[in-house]
């Protein structure tokens, strides 16, 4: 990212020089390329801080002493046999299509989205899997 950010800023300087020399100063390209360089520097800073905080210099796949289970990270809990994610996706689709096509479809999609979201969040508080 540091190399990419540096190359963006060098190209930005060349772009500024050529646009001033050609008497055709153009702001949008100059800002876009310059902010792309700034974004690369911000990402490089963020990634370097994350690696330093984790204390990991070598990925698990590259370590000689690593076991198979070391690379298997916890991905979270996923509810088996749950229909709520499908209903939530369908309700979100109805809502977005309603926003794109007609407001009355979005009015139908919004309560469906709220019901599906509540069902997904509270599915382990009632029924067979309640605890």
State the main characteristics:
131 residues, mainly alpha, 2 domains, 0% strand, flat
Structure description:
The chain folds into 2 domains: 2-56, no CATH class; 84-125. The chain contains 4 helices and no strands. It has helices at 2-21, 27-54, 84-101, 103-121. The mean pLDDT is 88.
Which helices and strands occur, and which strands form pairs?
Blueprint: H1 2-21, H2 27-54, H3 84-101, H4 103-121
The secondary-structure class comes to mainly alpha
Can you tell me the overall shape?
flat
The count of β-strands is 0
- The oligomeric state of the chains shown is single chain
Helix segment tally: 4
Condensed summary:
This protein is an all-alpha fold and 131 residues long. Helices cover 65% and strands 0% of the residues. The chain has helices at residues 2-21, 27-54, 84-101, 103-121.
């Amino acid at each position: 990212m540091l190399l990419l950010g540096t190359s963006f800023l060098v190209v930005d300087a060349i772009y500024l020089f050529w646009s001033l020399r050609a008497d055709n100063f153009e702001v949008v390209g100059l800002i876009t390329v310059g902010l792309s360089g700034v974004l690369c520097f911000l990402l490089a800073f963020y990634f370097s801080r994350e690696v330093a905080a984790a204390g990991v210099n070598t990925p698990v796949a590259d370590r000689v002493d690593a076991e198979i289970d070391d690379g298997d990270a916890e991905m979270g809990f996923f509810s088996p046999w749950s229909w709520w994610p499908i209903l939530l996706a369908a309700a979100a689709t109805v809502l977005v299509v309603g926003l794109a096509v007609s407001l009355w479809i979005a009015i139908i999609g919004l309560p469906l989205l709220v019901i599906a979201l509540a069902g997904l969040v509270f599915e382990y508080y009632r029924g067979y899997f309640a605890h």
